Amino acid sequence: MSRHLAELNIGRLRHPLEDPRSADFRNALDRVNGLAERMPGFVWRLVGEGNDATDIAWASDPKVIVNLSVWEDAETLERFVFDTVHRAFYARRAEWFDAMESHHFVMWWVPAGHRPSLAEAAERLARLDREGPSAEAFGWESLPRADELSAQRCG
Questions:
Q1: Sequential DSSP letters for 52-86
Q2: Which residue, among 1, 8, 2, has the nearest Cα to 123 in the 3D structure?
Q3: Is the pTM of this model over 0.85?
Q4: How many angstroms separate the CA atoms of 95 and 61, rounded?
Q5: Exposed site from 59, 62, 117, 137, fewest CB < 10 Å?
Q6: Closest CA to 110 of 82, 143, 136, 128
Q7: How many angstroms separate the Cα of 10 from the Cα of each of 24, 98, 152?
Q8: What's the CA dihedral at 76, 116, 112, 6 to 10 degrees?
Q9: What angle do CA 139, 5, 22 make, to 5 degrees?
């Protein structure tokens, strides 16, 4: 069975998206999202009313924004996150986002062609908080071990 890598990333904005202090972040959304979509290995991303997902509510906190996407594999996602202009914005995240009290990033394997729902992604994030890294919910630091567990389960 062919699989892809899903990822969820949430962040609580320090200031409303319309606030001038969020302008650099807000103004880069189309550029960074467009770059992601042109990257080899990109499969899909959640999009709301605009060309991003900033209008999609996360729980009851209107300051939390989400990014949910699917990639062919971890290497292609990693290349996008750390080897493109995305890296410069990632380095500035403390300017725009509050520190989270629990996990804010999770990855998991999905069957190729599957588009995870926000509810599915929220469950994966909650699982990572409850149980720690596993084949079903993991972060960068657990990726090799998650690969091994997933291969054992599928093989």
A1: SSTTS-BTTBTTEEEEEEEESSHHHHHHHHHHSTH
A2: 8
A3: yes
A4: 19
A5: 59
A6: 136
A7: 18, 11, 30
A8: 20
A9: 65
Which is nearest to 53 in space by CA: 91, 8, 92? 8
Please state the rounded mean pLDDT for residues 71-78: 93
Residues in a beta bridge with 61: 58
> Rounded to whole angstroms, how far apart are CA atoms 26 and 43?
23
Looking up tokens 């999202």 gives 33
For residues 58, 11, 68, 2, the Cα torsion angle rounded to the nearest 10 degrees is -120
* Residue 84 to residues 34, 39, 73, 78, Cα–Cα distance (Å): 12, 10, 17, 10
Q: Is the separation of the CB atoms in 106 and 18 below 8 Å? A: no
pLDDT band, residue 101 (cuts 50/70/90): confident
Return the bridge partners of 5, or none.
Answer: 71, 109
